[in-house]
Amino acid sequence: MRKLSLAAALLTASAITTPALADGHLRIVDEPLELTIQMNHARYPVYEESWPVEQAARELTGIHLINDTVGANMRTDENTGRTEALNLMLASGSIPDIVGSSRIRDFVNQFGPEGAFIPLNDLIEEHAPNIAAYYATRPDIEAAVKASDGQMYYIPYLPDGKYGRAFWIRTDWLDALGLEMPETVDEYEAVLRAFRTQDPNGNGLQDEVPFFARQWPELIRLVTLWDGRAHGSDTYHDFMIEDGVIGHGYIGEGYRDGIANLARWYADGLIDAEIFTRGSSARDFLLSENLGGSTHDWFASTSGYNSLSSEIDGFAFEAFLPPASPSGRRIEEHRRILVKPDGWAIGHTNEHLVETIQYMDFWFTEEGRRLANFGVEGQQYEMVDGEPIFTQEFLDSGPVNRNLYQVGSQLQGRGYFQDYNYEIQWSNEFALEGIALYDTMPDLLIEDFLGVAFTAEEQAVYDRTWGSIRDYMLERQQGWILGNGDVMADWDAYIAQLDEMGMQ
Prior knowledge:
By secondary structure, this protein is an alpha/beta fold. The protein has helices at residues 5-17, 19-22, 52-61, 84-92, 105-111, 121-127, 129-137, 139-145, 171-177, 185-197, 217-220, 253-267, 282-288, 299-303, 353-362, 366-374, 392-395, 400-407, 421-424, 429-439, 456-481, 487-501, and strands at 33-40, 63-67, 98-101, 155-156, 165-170, 209-211, 240-242, 245-247, 292-298, 317-320, 343-346, 381-384, 387-390. It folds into 2 domains: 5-159 and 337-419, D-Maltodextrin-Binding Protein, domain 2; 165-334 and 448-501, Periplasmic binding protein-like II (D-Maltodextrin-Binding Protein, domain 2).
């Protein structure tokens, strides 16, 4: 199991400089202190005071988080990058002591300088030694978090690990049809076409779905197979960095060529006909029904479907390297981003700023980080040779990430530093072999776009133009793939329209 030596060094350094931690005392207040919190995420629309992790944190720190979520039933808007609930909260004029959310960065970096959220630089320097120690080693991440006024207004969720998603394929279908693992985009197309036409599931029907995806933007990511770009980070439709310059994938010629080919694949039945509507159930349904052939999805969770071999004779779903483009380039566009736009902030009416930042710092201590990542000792894990190890009962109880959410761990609406060891423990041999395969090509991963800090004037331009520009790009994108227009014939008019809308 890989050790996080950097994190361990940070925690050791923090303990040396913080007497309260050196003797194991993590309590922040003598008397219990209640702080209100709004927390929104697609997986947990409110903060649950009954979470075992919340209960353990209360016991350790004396801080009690009380749910005060506005718009708990509102849908998280993945396109705009901020939730409807956050907007509703701001409009209500009532901001809780702590606000945690997915996609919170742009929101707090806009409204923080206007006074809605507390600037954190001095609070971190004076009262959060563990967070400060982390930033001291990662000034790039500290810079990515800051707003245009140089202040930090949120504590981010910091992912750990290297790889996220990979290409997956039914190797038992390859064997059944006498096919080799595809190495190029042309070979990949030939394999998908064979999956469609040669009945690899052996039921005598042409019901196979060669390529599918749980999130339809993963289809758009396939433009990389024709030297295009789609998403500049693990946030869909994001900007990107190329040769040190900020740009966007949806205006590149490689993207144009990729969309033209994806439209052709879709017309030929190589792509799930319900790619834009099937949603998150696609992987479960198509694999369990022995219909799905290939996808682009997460290492650990996707590898787990190999347990279907007990129900589907010979079932094997394995990771393979990204097929080479016509120019010979192989890239994996998705990686674990260094810092997420998710996390939590302090509302401007909070009357306990020192205690609140100390509480946020608690999650960067050794004990707090373990709680955030693994749950509660004795319930989800036990300490074995100094390492938190999930119990077999917990591992057998269902998807680990889902079950951790349900006890209050791995919350992206919390600012904390993830520990990849939590995922290694439920990654089977198929995932680990796939990661090792990807490691054979160290240049696969490309630079992430970590965001920019807008001035008020720049923010106004962004707010005025970006929403309509993005919607237009997505409308044309889906239209072209579904056969509504021809991207090659429409391209010049498309670019002209984007220019008129303010893209440049």
